[in-house]
Amino acid sequence: MLLSITTTREPATDLGYLLHKNPARLHSVPLSFGTAHIFYSEATPQRCTANLLLDINPVDLARTKQAAGEDIAYVNDRPYAASSFLSTAIAKVFGTALSGRCKDKPELAVSPIMLEVTITTLPCLEGEELIRRLFIPLGYDLDITSYKLDERFPEWGESPYYTVTIRGRKCIKELLAHLYVLIPVLDEEKHYWINQDEIDVLLRRGEGWLARHPERELIAARFLKRQRTLTDRALQRLMNGEGAEHSHNQLPGRGSAQKEEAWEESLSLREQRIRAIVAVLKEVGAKTVADLGCGEGNLLKVLLADKDFTALTGMDVSYRTLEKAHKKLKLEDMPSVQKERLQLFQGSLLYRDKRLQGYDAVVVSEVIEHLDEDRLKTFIRHVFGFLRPPALVITTPNREYNVNYPQLPAGEFRHADHRFEWSRSEFRHWAESAAKQYGYTVSIKPVGSLDPKTGAPTQLGVFSR
Ligand code: SAH
Predict the structure, then answer these.
(1) 347: pLDDT confidence band, cut at 50, 70 and 90?
(2) For residue 187, what is the domain's CATH number?
(3) pLDDT for the residue 439
(4) What ligand 1 atom has the least distance to the C-alpha of 274?
(5) By residue range, what is the domain housing residue 86?
(6) How far is the CA of 409 from the centre of ligand 1 (A)?
(7) Can you tell me which atom of ligand 1 is nearest the CA of 375?
(8) How far does the centroid of ligand 1 lie from the alpha carbon of residue 312, in Å?
(9) Domain check: are 185 and 276 in the same one?
(10) Is the CB of 366 under 6 A from ligand 1?
Protein backbone atom coordinates (compact mmCIF):
# COMPACT_ATOMS: atom_id res chain seq x y z
CA MET A 1 0.00 0.00 0.00
CA LEU A 2 1.59 3.19 -1.18
CA LEU A 3 0.55 6.81 -0.74
CA SER A 4 2.67 9.62 -2.06
CA ILE A 5 2.52 13.34 -1.31
CA THR A 6 4.21 15.79 -3.67
CA THR A 7 4.69 19.53 -3.58
CA THR A 8 6.17 21.86 -6.16
CA ARG A 9 6.01 24.93 -3.99
CA GLU A 10 9.58 26.15 -3.70
CA PRO A 11 11.61 25.29 -1.78
CA ALA A 12 9.81 21.98 -2.15
CA THR A 13 11.99 20.29 0.45
CA ASP A 14 10.01 22.24 3.06
CA LEU A 15 7.69 19.25 2.83
CA GLY A 16 10.11 17.60 5.22
CA TYR A 17 9.35 20.26 7.87
CA LEU A 18 5.64 20.03 7.25
CA LEU A 19 5.54 16.27 7.66
CA HIS A 20 8.17 16.24 10.41
CA LYS A 21 10.15 13.72 8.43
CA ASN A 22 13.63 14.48 7.20
CA PRO A 23 13.87 13.87 3.43
CA ALA A 24 17.41 12.52 3.80
CA ARG A 25 16.35 9.55 5.89
CA LEU A 26 14.20 6.43 5.78
CA HIS A 27 11.74 6.37 8.67
CA SER A 28 10.17 3.10 9.80
CA VAL A 29 7.39 3.22 12.35
CA PRO A 30 6.02 0.02 13.90
CA LEU A 31 2.24 -0.17 14.12
CA SER A 32 0.09 -2.82 15.76
CA PHE A 33 -0.81 -4.27 12.35
CA GLY A 34 2.45 -3.84 10.45
CA THR A 35 5.10 -1.24 9.68
CA ALA A 36 4.87 2.17 8.04
CA HIS A 37 7.92 3.28 6.06
CA ILE A 38 8.33 6.88 5.01
CA PHE A 39 10.85 7.69 2.33
CA TYR A 40 11.36 10.43 -0.23
CA SER A 41 11.61 9.42 -3.86
CA GLU A 42 12.66 12.93 -4.90
CA ALA A 43 13.79 15.95 -2.90
CA THR A 44 14.89 18.92 -4.97
CA PRO A 45 14.03 22.58 -4.38
CA GLN A 46 11.57 22.34 -7.29
CA ARG A 47 9.81 19.11 -6.43
CA CYS A 48 9.66 16.89 -3.38
CA THR A 49 7.75 13.62 -2.88
CA ALA A 50 7.22 11.81 0.41
CA ASN A 51 5.96 8.24 0.25
CA LEU A 52 4.15 6.32 2.92
CA LEU A 53 4.52 2.61 2.36
CA LEU A 54 2.35 0.52 4.60
CA ASP A 55 3.54 -3.03 5.05
CA ILE A 56 0.86 -5.29 6.49
CA ASN A 57 1.41 -9.01 6.78
CA PRO A 58 -1.87 -10.62 5.69
CA VAL A 59 -1.20 -13.86 7.58
CA ASP A 60 -0.49 -12.09 10.89
CA LEU A 61 -3.54 -9.97 10.31
CA ALA A 62 -5.78 -12.96 9.62
CA ARG A 63 -4.40 -14.75 12.70
CA THR A 64 -5.13 -11.86 15.08
CA LYS A 65 -8.56 -11.30 13.60
CA GLN A 66 -9.42 -14.99 13.68
CA ALA A 67 -8.26 -15.23 17.29
CA ALA A 68 -10.67 -12.41 18.05
CA GLY A 69 -13.47 -14.42 16.47
CA GLU A 70 -13.71 -12.58 13.17
CA ASP A 71 -13.94 -14.17 9.77
CA ILE A 72 -11.09 -13.15 7.50
CA ALA A 73 -9.26 -15.16 4.89
CA TYR A 74 -5.48 -15.59 4.90
CA VAL A 75 -5.47 -14.23 1.39
CA ASN A 76 -7.05 -10.79 1.62
CA ASP A 77 -6.66 -7.42 -0.03
CA ARG A 78 -5.79 -5.50 3.14
CA PRO A 79 -2.04 -5.22 2.50
CA TYR A 80 -2.65 -3.71 -0.94
CA ALA A 81 -5.77 -1.59 -0.58
CA ALA A 82 -6.01 1.88 0.94
CA SER A 83 -8.21 1.41 3.98
CA SER A 84 -8.72 2.46 7.57
CA PHE A 85 -5.28 0.95 8.23
CA LEU A 86 -3.88 3.75 6.11
CA SER A 87 -5.85 6.34 8.10
CA THR A 88 -4.50 4.93 11.33
CA ALA A 89 -0.99 5.04 9.87
CA ILE A 90 -1.45 8.66 8.72
CA ALA A 91 -2.55 9.66 12.21
CA LYS A 92 0.44 7.88 13.70
CA VAL A 93 3.25 8.92 11.38
CA PHE A 94 1.95 12.35 10.35
CA GLY A 95 0.17 13.15 13.62
CA THR A 96 1.83 16.53 14.08
CA ALA A 97 0.97 17.65 10.56
CA LEU A 98 -2.57 16.36 10.94
CA SER A 99 -3.00 18.47 14.03
CA GLY A 100 -1.85 21.57 12.12
CA ARG A 101 1.44 22.08 13.93
CA CYS A 102 4.90 22.66 12.49
CA LYS A 103 7.63 23.30 15.03
CA ASP A 104 10.23 24.80 12.73
CA LYS A 105 8.01 26.68 10.29
CA PRO A 106 4.65 27.25 11.98
CA GLU A 107 3.45 29.66 9.28
CA LEU A 108 3.93 26.94 6.67
CA ALA A 109 1.46 24.60 8.38
CA VAL A 110 -1.34 27.11 7.95
CA SER A 111 -0.53 28.18 4.38
CA PRO A 112 -2.34 26.56 1.51
CA ILE A 113 0.23 25.22 -0.96
CA MET A 114 0.01 23.13 -4.11
CA LEU A 115 -0.13 19.51 -2.99
CA GLU A 116 -0.63 16.37 -4.98
CA VAL A 117 -1.40 12.94 -3.56
CA THR A 118 -1.41 9.62 -5.34
CA ILE A 119 -3.05 6.59 -3.83
CA THR A 120 -2.01 3.56 -5.82
CA THR A 121 -4.87 1.25 -4.92
CA LEU A 122 -8.02 2.85 -3.67
CA PRO A 123 -10.95 0.44 -3.34
CA CYS A 124 -14.43 1.67 -4.17
CA LEU A 125 -17.13 -0.84 -5.01
CA GLU A 126 -19.48 1.87 -6.26
CA GLY A 127 -17.11 2.93 -8.99
CA GLU A 128 -15.15 6.06 -9.72
CA GLU A 129 -18.19 8.33 -9.68
CA LEU A 130 -18.24 8.19 -5.89
CA ILE A 131 -14.57 9.11 -5.70
CA ARG A 132 -15.38 12.25 -7.70
CA ARG A 133 -18.41 13.09 -5.58
CA LEU A 134 -16.25 13.03 -2.49
CA PHE A 135 -13.14 14.92 -3.63
CA ILE A 136 -14.40 17.43 -6.20
CA PRO A 137 -16.55 19.44 -3.75
CA LEU A 138 -13.41 19.90 -1.65
CA GLY A 139 -11.74 21.67 -4.55
CA TYR A 140 -9.45 18.97 -5.88
CA ASP A 141 -8.58 18.08 -9.44
CA LEU A 142 -8.66 14.36 -9.96
CA ASP A 143 -6.97 11.81 -12.16
CA ILE A 144 -8.48 8.38 -11.86
CA THR A 145 -7.14 5.27 -13.56
CA SER A 146 -9.48 2.30 -13.62
CA TYR A 147 -8.57 -1.29 -14.38
CA LYS A 148 -10.23 -4.32 -15.83
CA LEU A 149 -10.79 -7.09 -13.35
CA ASP A 150 -8.72 -9.23 -15.68
CA GLU A 151 -7.26 -7.88 -18.91
CA ARG A 152 -7.65 -11.27 -20.59
CA PHE A 153 -11.39 -11.38 -19.86
CA PRO A 154 -12.77 -7.91 -20.54
CA GLU A 155 -16.31 -9.27 -20.19
CA TRP A 156 -15.67 -9.62 -16.44
CA GLY A 157 -15.90 -5.87 -16.17
CA GLU A 158 -14.15 -3.30 -14.00
CA SER A 159 -12.04 -3.92 -10.95
CA PRO A 160 -13.12 -2.12 -7.78
CA TYR A 161 -9.61 -0.68 -7.32
CA TYR A 162 -8.48 2.66 -8.69
CA THR A 163 -5.27 4.62 -8.86
CA VAL A 164 -6.22 8.10 -7.83
CA THR A 165 -4.30 11.38 -7.91
CA ILE A 166 -5.80 14.41 -6.22
CA ARG A 167 -4.37 17.89 -6.64
CA GLY A 168 -5.20 21.15 -4.91
CA ARG A 169 -4.04 24.17 -2.96
CA LYS A 170 -4.43 23.03 0.61
CA CYS A 171 -2.86 23.27 4.03
CA ILE A 172 -1.22 19.99 4.85
CA LYS A 173 -3.60 19.53 7.78
CA GLU A 174 -6.67 19.83 5.55
CA LEU A 175 -5.27 17.45 3.01
CA LEU A 176 -4.44 14.79 5.59
CA ALA A 177 -7.81 15.18 7.30
CA HIS A 178 -9.61 14.69 3.97
CA LEU A 179 -7.63 11.54 3.32
CA TYR A 180 -8.08 10.29 6.87
CA VAL A 181 -11.86 10.48 6.61
CA LEU A 182 -12.52 9.73 2.95
CA ILE A 183 -10.30 6.69 2.41
CA PRO A 184 -12.25 4.50 4.88
CA VAL A 185 -15.49 6.00 3.54
CA LEU A 186 -14.61 4.70 0.07
CA ASP A 187 -13.32 1.37 1.30
CA GLU A 188 -16.05 0.89 3.90
CA GLU A 189 -14.33 -1.76 5.96
CA LYS A 190 -13.00 -0.59 9.30
CA HIS A 191 -10.36 -2.73 10.88
CA TYR A 192 -11.44 -1.87 14.40
CA TRP A 193 -14.60 -1.99 16.38
CA ILE A 194 -16.31 1.35 16.37
CA ASN A 195 -18.33 3.03 19.11
CA GLN A 196 -19.47 6.49 20.13
CA ASP A 197 -15.90 7.73 20.38
CA GLU A 198 -15.69 7.46 16.62
CA ILE A 199 -18.19 10.31 16.32
CA ASP A 200 -15.63 12.55 18.02
CA VAL A 201 -12.95 11.37 15.61
CA LEU A 202 -15.20 12.15 12.64
CA LEU A 203 -16.10 15.60 13.95
CA ARG A 204 -12.51 16.45 14.79
CA ARG A 205 -11.16 15.38 11.40
CA GLY A 206 -14.17 16.85 9.62
CA GLU A 207 -13.81 20.22 11.29
CA GLY A 208 -14.17 23.11 8.88
CA TRP A 209 -15.28 21.08 5.85
CA LEU A 210 -17.60 18.19 6.58
CA ALA A 211 -20.61 20.28 7.59
CA ARG A 212 -20.53 22.02 4.19
CA HIS A 213 -19.83 18.92 2.12
CA PRO A 214 -22.83 18.01 -0.06
CA GLU A 215 -22.20 14.32 0.68
CA ARG A 216 -21.86 14.72 4.44
CA GLU A 217 -24.66 12.24 5.14
CA LEU A 218 -23.10 9.54 3.05
CA ILE A 219 -19.68 10.30 4.55
CA ALA A 220 -20.94 10.11 8.13
CA ALA A 221 -22.95 6.95 7.49
CA ARG A 222 -20.10 5.10 5.85
CA PHE A 223 -17.43 6.37 8.25
CA LEU A 224 -19.60 5.14 11.14
CA LYS A 225 -20.16 1.79 9.45
CA ARG A 226 -23.79 2.58 8.73
CA GLN A 227 -24.73 2.41 12.40
CA ARG A 228 -27.85 4.47 12.28
CA THR A 229 -27.85 5.77 15.84
CA LEU A 230 -24.23 6.88 15.63
CA THR A 231 -24.78 8.48 12.24
CA ASP A 232 -27.85 10.42 13.35
CA ARG A 233 -26.01 11.62 16.40
CA ALA A 234 -22.97 12.65 14.39
CA LEU A 235 -25.04 14.57 11.84
CA GLN A 236 -27.04 16.25 14.54
CA ARG A 237 -23.87 17.40 16.27
CA LEU A 238 -22.29 18.39 12.99
CA MET A 239 -25.25 20.47 11.95
CA ASN A 240 -25.51 22.01 15.40
CA GLY A 241 -22.03 23.30 14.82
CA GLU A 242 -20.61 21.24 17.65
CA GLY A 243 -16.96 20.42 17.38
CA ALA A 244 -15.32 17.35 18.72
CA GLU A 245 -14.49 19.15 21.95
CA HIS A 246 -18.16 19.28 22.84
CA SER A 247 -18.28 15.90 24.33
CA HIS A 248 -21.62 14.16 24.01
CA ASN A 249 -21.66 14.10 27.81
CA GLN A 250 -22.99 17.62 27.68
CA LEU A 251 -26.20 16.41 26.16
CA PRO A 252 -27.84 14.61 29.00
CA GLY A 253 -29.19 11.25 28.11
CA ARG A 254 -28.77 11.56 24.39
CA GLY A 255 -26.13 9.51 22.69
CA SER A 256 -23.99 8.90 25.71
CA ALA A 257 -23.55 5.53 27.28
CA GLN A 258 -22.11 7.25 30.31
CA LYS A 259 -25.31 9.18 30.88
CA GLU A 260 -27.38 6.06 31.11
CA GLU A 261 -29.15 7.49 34.12
CA ALA A 262 -30.66 10.41 32.21
CA TRP A 263 -34.25 9.30 31.88
CA GLU A 264 -35.39 6.68 34.18
CA GLU A 265 -32.21 6.10 36.07
CA SER A 266 -33.08 7.64 39.30
CA LEU A 267 -30.19 6.69 41.52
CA SER A 268 -32.46 4.41 43.38
CA LEU A 269 -33.20 2.20 40.37
CA ARG A 270 -29.50 1.77 39.74
CA GLU A 271 -28.95 1.00 43.39
CA GLN A 272 -31.78 -1.48 43.41
CA ARG A 273 -30.29 -3.17 40.38
CA ILE A 274 -26.89 -3.42 41.97
CA ARG A 275 -28.43 -4.78 45.15
CA ALA A 276 -30.38 -7.37 43.17
CA ILE A 277 -27.25 -8.46 41.30
CA VAL A 278 -25.16 -8.72 44.48
CA ALA A 279 -27.92 -10.79 46.10
CA VAL A 280 -27.86 -13.24 43.19
CA LEU A 281 -24.05 -13.47 43.28
CA LYS A 282 -24.19 -14.27 47.00
CA GLU A 283 -26.96 -16.78 46.50
CA VAL A 284 -24.96 -18.76 43.97
CA GLY A 285 -21.83 -18.47 46.13
CA ALA A 286 -19.74 -16.68 43.50
CA LYS A 287 -16.28 -15.63 44.68
CA THR A 288 -14.91 -14.48 41.36
CA VAL A 289 -16.93 -12.22 39.11
CA ALA A 290 -16.47 -10.63 35.69
CA ASP A 291 -18.61 -7.57 34.94
CA LEU A 292 -18.82 -7.19 31.16
CA GLY A 293 -19.76 -3.75 29.88
CA CYS A 294 -18.95 -2.56 33.41
CA GLY A 295 -19.37 1.13 32.53
CA GLU A 296 -18.01 3.39 35.22
CA GLY A 297 -17.68 0.56 37.70
CA ASN A 298 -20.67 1.11 40.00
CA LEU A 299 -21.20 -2.59 40.58
CA LEU A 300 -17.49 -3.30 40.96
CA LYS A 301 -17.26 -0.66 43.66
CA VAL A 302 -19.85 -2.46 45.76
CA LEU A 303 -18.32 -5.88 45.14
CA LEU A 304 -14.87 -4.62 46.00
CA ALA A 305 -16.09 -3.51 49.42
CA ASP A 306 -17.16 -7.09 50.17
CA LYS A 307 -14.39 -9.48 51.16
CA ASP A 308 -16.39 -12.50 49.94
CA PHE A 309 -15.44 -11.55 46.41
CA THR A 310 -11.84 -12.54 45.86
CA ALA A 311 -11.26 -11.67 42.20
CA LEU A 312 -13.09 -9.07 40.16
CA THR A 313 -12.74 -8.04 36.54
CA GLY A 314 -14.38 -5.18 34.72
CA MET A 315 -14.36 -5.09 30.95
CA ASP A 316 -15.84 -2.44 28.68
CA VAL A 317 -15.58 -1.53 25.03
CA SER A 318 -15.15 2.17 25.75
CA TYR A 319 -11.72 3.26 26.80
CA ARG A 320 -12.97 6.59 28.01
CA THR A 321 -15.54 4.94 30.27
CA LEU A 322 -12.85 2.69 31.70
CA GLU A 323 -10.77 5.71 32.55
CA LYS A 324 -13.71 7.05 34.51
CA ALA A 325 -14.10 3.72 36.26
CA HIS A 326 -10.43 3.85 37.10
CA LYS A 327 -10.92 7.21 38.77
CA LYS A 328 -14.19 6.34 40.49
CA LEU A 329 -12.71 3.20 41.98
CA LYS A 330 -9.67 5.22 43.08
CA LEU A 331 -7.40 2.56 41.67
CA GLU A 332 -4.38 4.81 42.03
CA ASP A 333 -4.64 5.16 45.78
CA MET A 334 -5.80 1.64 46.49
CA PRO A 335 -3.64 -0.51 48.81
CA SER A 336 -1.95 -3.23 46.79
CA VAL A 337 -3.81 -6.13 48.47
CA GLN A 338 -7.02 -4.54 47.37
CA LYS A 339 -5.69 -3.71 43.93
CA GLU A 340 -4.77 -7.32 43.30
CA ARG A 341 -8.43 -8.30 43.58
CA LEU A 342 -9.45 -6.09 40.69
CA GLN A 343 -8.54 -5.68 37.08
CA LEU A 344 -10.05 -3.49 34.40
CA PHE A 345 -9.50 -3.89 30.71
CA GLN A 346 -10.85 -2.94 27.35
CA GLY A 347 -12.57 -5.58 25.28
CA SER A 348 -15.79 -6.38 23.53
CA LEU A 349 -18.57 -8.82 24.16
CA LEU A 350 -18.47 -9.59 20.47
CA TYR A 351 -14.91 -10.89 20.58
CA ARG A 352 -13.90 -14.18 22.08
CA ASP A 353 -11.63 -13.37 24.99
CA LYS A 354 -9.84 -16.06 27.00
CA ARG A 355 -9.08 -13.62 29.80
CA LEU A 356 -12.75 -13.77 30.74
CA GLN A 357 -12.94 -17.54 31.17
CA GLY A 358 -12.98 -19.31 34.54
CA TYR A 359 -15.07 -16.90 36.63
CA ASP A 360 -17.74 -18.23 39.03
CA ALA A 361 -20.14 -15.64 37.68
CA VAL A 362 -20.41 -13.24 34.78
CA VAL A 363 -22.59 -10.12 34.91
CA VAL A 364 -23.83 -8.26 31.82
CA SER A 365 -25.96 -5.44 33.15
CA GLU A 366 -27.78 -2.96 30.89
CA VAL A 367 -25.53 -3.78 27.96
CA ILE A 368 -27.28 -6.13 25.53
CA GLU A 369 -29.67 -3.39 24.43
CA HIS A 370 -26.61 -1.49 23.15
CA LEU A 371 -25.77 -4.30 20.72
CA ASP A 372 -27.30 -4.49 17.27
CA GLU A 373 -29.86 -7.24 17.29
CA ASP A 374 -28.06 -9.20 14.61
CA ARG A 375 -24.99 -9.26 16.91
CA LEU A 376 -26.84 -10.93 19.74
CA LYS A 377 -26.18 -14.36 18.26
CA THR A 378 -22.45 -13.68 18.45
CA PHE A 379 -22.91 -12.45 22.00
CA ILE A 380 -24.75 -15.65 22.97
CA ARG A 381 -22.10 -17.81 21.32
CA HIS A 382 -19.29 -16.06 23.14
CA VAL A 383 -20.82 -15.71 26.58
CA PHE A 384 -22.90 -18.88 26.87
CA GLY A 385 -20.84 -21.05 24.54
CA PHE A 386 -17.26 -19.89 25.04
CA LEU A 387 -17.06 -18.34 28.53
CA ARG A 388 -19.62 -20.80 29.96
CA PRO A 389 -19.70 -19.38 33.50
CA PRO A 390 -21.55 -21.49 36.11
CA ALA A 391 -23.71 -18.44 36.76
CA LEU A 392 -24.62 -15.60 34.46
CA VAL A 393 -26.67 -12.50 35.27
CA ILE A 394 -28.12 -10.39 32.46
CA THR A 395 -30.24 -7.29 33.00
CA THR A 396 -32.07 -5.16 30.43
CA PRO A 397 -34.89 -2.58 30.45
CA ASN A 398 -38.50 -3.66 30.27
CA ARG A 399 -40.01 -1.62 27.45
CA GLU A 400 -43.57 -2.03 28.72
CA TYR A 401 -42.65 0.03 31.77
CA ASN A 402 -41.75 3.09 29.65
CA VAL A 403 -45.33 4.39 29.74
CA ASN A 404 -44.62 5.20 33.37
CA TYR A 405 -42.09 7.84 32.32
CA PRO A 406 -44.28 10.76 31.36
CA GLN A 407 -41.44 12.77 29.80
CA LEU A 408 -40.34 9.93 27.56
CA PRO A 409 -42.06 10.35 24.17
CA ALA A 410 -44.15 7.29 23.28
CA GLY A 411 -42.21 4.72 21.30
CA GLU A 412 -38.80 6.19 22.16
CA PHE A 413 -36.13 4.26 23.95
CA ARG A 414 -34.78 5.31 27.31
CA HIS A 415 -31.43 6.01 25.80
CA ALA A 416 -30.36 7.14 22.33
CA ASP A 417 -27.79 4.37 22.00
CA HIS A 418 -30.28 1.59 22.76
CA ARG A 419 -30.80 -0.53 19.68
CA PHE A 420 -33.90 -2.14 21.13
CA GLU A 421 -35.81 -2.45 24.35
CA TRP A 422 -37.69 -5.64 25.02
CA SER A 423 -41.05 -6.41 26.52
CA ARG A 424 -41.14 -9.03 29.24
CA SER A 425 -42.20 -11.76 26.87
CA GLU A 426 -39.53 -10.83 24.32
CA PHE A 427 -36.79 -11.04 26.95
CA ARG A 428 -38.18 -14.29 28.32
CA HIS A 429 -38.31 -15.81 24.89
CA TRP A 430 -34.73 -14.76 24.07
CA ALA A 431 -33.39 -15.86 27.45
CA GLU A 432 -35.08 -19.24 27.36
CA SER A 433 -33.91 -20.03 23.89
CA ALA A 434 -30.28 -19.06 24.67
CA ALA A 435 -30.41 -21.09 27.90
CA LYS A 436 -31.81 -24.13 26.16
CA GLN A 437 -29.27 -23.96 23.37
CA TYR A 438 -26.33 -24.01 25.80
CA GLY A 439 -27.60 -26.19 28.64
CA TYR A 440 -28.57 -23.49 31.13
CA THR A 441 -31.70 -22.93 33.17
CA VAL A 442 -33.00 -19.42 33.56
CA SER A 443 -35.17 -17.57 36.05
CA ILE A 444 -36.28 -13.99 35.47
CA LYS A 445 -36.85 -11.46 38.24
CA PRO A 446 -38.28 -7.93 38.20
CA VAL A 447 -36.11 -5.11 39.60
CA GLY A 448 -37.44 -1.73 40.71
CA SER A 449 -40.92 -0.59 41.61
CA LEU A 450 -43.48 -3.05 40.34
CA ASP A 451 -46.39 -1.68 38.31
CA PRO A 452 -49.33 -4.09 38.20
CA LYS A 453 -49.89 -3.61 34.48
CA THR A 454 -46.45 -3.10 33.00
CA GLY A 455 -44.16 -4.88 35.45
CA ALA A 456 -40.87 -3.47 36.78
CA PRO A 457 -38.47 -1.09 34.97
CA THR A 458 -35.63 -3.61 34.84
CA GLN A 459 -35.70 -7.31 34.09
CA LEU A 460 -32.97 -9.55 35.44
CA GLY A 461 -32.23 -13.04 34.16
CA VAL A 462 -30.23 -15.52 36.25
CA PHE A 463 -28.78 -18.32 34.16
CA SER A 464 -27.31 -21.42 35.82
CA ARG A 465 -25.41 -24.15 34.12
N1 SAH B 1 -23.04 -2.26 33.34
C2 SAH B 1 -23.08 -0.85 33.66
C3 SAH B 1 -23.03 0.05 32.45
C4 SAH B 1 -24.18 -0.04 31.50
S5 SAH B 1 -24.05 1.12 30.16
C6 SAH B 1 -24.30 -0.56 34.49
O7 SAH B 1 -25.16 -1.43 34.64
O8 SAH B 1 -24.41 0.54 35.01
C9 SAH B 1 -23.57 0.09 28.84
C10 SAH B 1 -22.09 -0.15 28.78
O11 SAH B 1 -21.85 -1.18 27.85
C12 SAH B 1 -21.30 1.05 28.31
O13 SAH B 1 -20.27 1.32 29.23
C14 SAH B 1 -20.74 0.62 26.97
O15 SAH B 1 -19.45 1.16 26.70
C16 SAH B 1 -20.67 -0.88 27.12
N17 SAH B 1 -20.71 -1.64 25.87
C18 SAH B 1 -21.47 -1.41 24.77
N19 SAH B 1 -21.20 -2.32 23.82
C20 SAH B 1 -20.26 -3.17 24.32
C21 SAH B 1 -19.56 -4.29 23.82
N22 SAH B 1 -19.79 -4.76 22.61
N23 SAH B 1 -18.64 -4.88 24.61
C24 SAH B 1 -18.42 -4.42 25.86
N25 SAH B 1 -19.03 -3.35 26.37
C26 SAH B 1 -19.94 -2.72 25.63
Answers:
(1) confident
(2) 3.30.1610.20
(3) 97
(4) 7
(5) 2-192
(6) 24
(7) 22
(8) 16
(9) no
(10) yes
